[in-house]
Prior knowledge:
Blueprint: H1 13-24, H2 43-52, H3 54-76, H4 80-107, H5 118-125, H6 132-156, H7 160-194, H8 196-214, H9 217-223, H10 225-231, H11 235-261
Helix pairs in contact: 1-4, 1-7, 2-10, 3-4, 3-5, 3-6, 4-7, 6-7, 6-8, 6-11, 7-8, 7-11, 8-11
Amino acid sequence: MRIYNVFPRLTRTRQMSLWHKALKQQWSATDLDWKAPGAPRGDGFKDHLGRVLTPVITGEQSALYSVATLIPILGGNSEVEGQFYLGTWVVDEARHTELFVRYYERLGREPMSIRKFPYGYLFQSQIGSTEPAVWLAGTLVSEVLAKLVMEEFRRLDLDPVLNQIAEGILADEARHLAFNHIYLEERFGGLFREGERAGRDLAERLEARLEAVMAHVAPIFDHLDADLRAVGLDRDLLYEEMRREARERLRTSIERGERAAAGVPAAGMATEGVPLGGASTASGSSASQD
């Protein structure tokens, strides 16, 4: 097994481009004014929002650990460009975790425990994998859901601090989704060059993986139904949009990989791997394609 290259060639140019973009877009929780006026009022509303944010903060922590696990695995495959990018992804998830720890302090609330909210923790446990492609298919659900929820928080304008958090996280999530597309597209391109069956086998496996992870989202929404509605989120629209977008993104990666293997240019796609045209959020607005 190759642990590292003494002199890596860094030939995966799209991954390298995303790595440099991530370096330039770094930011910190200390950049926010945590004492800014406009925090949510009313104990009842704070309770609802604190419960809604529970799967958000657990998702950030889970991603922090799972991304860190993948870095040495990519090293074992001498995928240095991917290691570079995942290094910034770890920083992103650590930042997001800190942001929500601080935001809970602003609310004067705490996330629900595992005992009170087992569904959220069970969902996160389904995502981890030591196989990069399998992990990306699972985390695609979490990343799409996070993007949609942040778009909704921005639309609802519940708190100027939460708005700033949502804006920053949306920029980070756009890069994560871009890496998801780029990595999977390149992986499928290589497999389809080897043969039709190799590409189809992985496609079927990842599609099944995606569906299995998505099946754990509905119990979360069921448990938080009253809280979601209290803060202004339509759980039904959010759930359907998550399912539609996650499936579309995985299908896009597969199709682009197959076209690349056949030497067919991929038209109508963003340069960093995110579909152009956007996707409607639970409120009907256009999805961010930063």
